[in-house]
Write a sequence for this structure.
């Protein structure tokens, strides 16, 4: 038994030794988001999943909901729809509700929001490859500024393997 206490018990502490306590995570300074990746009302959502995203700036007393628990985008800024990609998606995929992966990535003036409105067709396949579709992945983007506001409508970011961000500066 003594070997077990040596194996698992470690060294005995003297009566005067200091006990280390886990350090708490530091409070964020400046504005932050409560989540940076959410999946919304996806087909595999489990009970209790929470997709809410809040913009928080404690120094200015701001707490603003950007996405609710079910993936509904609040104060939806709209979508700049262009025929070349709109014809590749179903109309209900452009409803202001997250159904697939959406990320909020730090950007120089806030956050870049990448909203996947249509996954690659392989998303639907099972382990044997059955059920796959020929759909291209479609990602849209916009920005959230340091006041928690969308800066403009969502625009095409990626269609299949072709990227449209950053936009061509020459046009």
């Amino acid at each position: 038994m003594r070997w077990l206490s040596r194996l698992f018990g470690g060294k005995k502490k003297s009566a005067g030794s200091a006990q280390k306590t886990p350090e708490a995570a530091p409070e964020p300074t400046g504005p932050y988001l409560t989540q940076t990746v959410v999946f919304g009302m996806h087909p595999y959502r489990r009970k209790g999943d929470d997709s809410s995203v809040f913009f928080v700036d404690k120094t200015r007393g701001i707490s603003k909901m950007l996405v609710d628990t079910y993936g509904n985008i609040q104060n939806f800024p709209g979508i700049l729809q262009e025929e070349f990609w709109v014809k590749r998606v179903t109309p209900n995929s452009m409803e202001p509700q997250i159904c697939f992966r959406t990320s909020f990535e730090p950007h120089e003036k806030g956050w870049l929001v990448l909203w996947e409105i249509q996954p690659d067709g392989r998303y639907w396949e099972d382990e044997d490859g059955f059920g796959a579709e020929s759909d291209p992945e479609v990602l849209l983007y916009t920005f959230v500024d340091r006041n928690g506001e969308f800066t403009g409508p969502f625009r095409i970011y990626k269609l299949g393997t072709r990227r449209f961000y950053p936009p061509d500066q020459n046009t």
Notes: The longest strand covers residues 110-118.
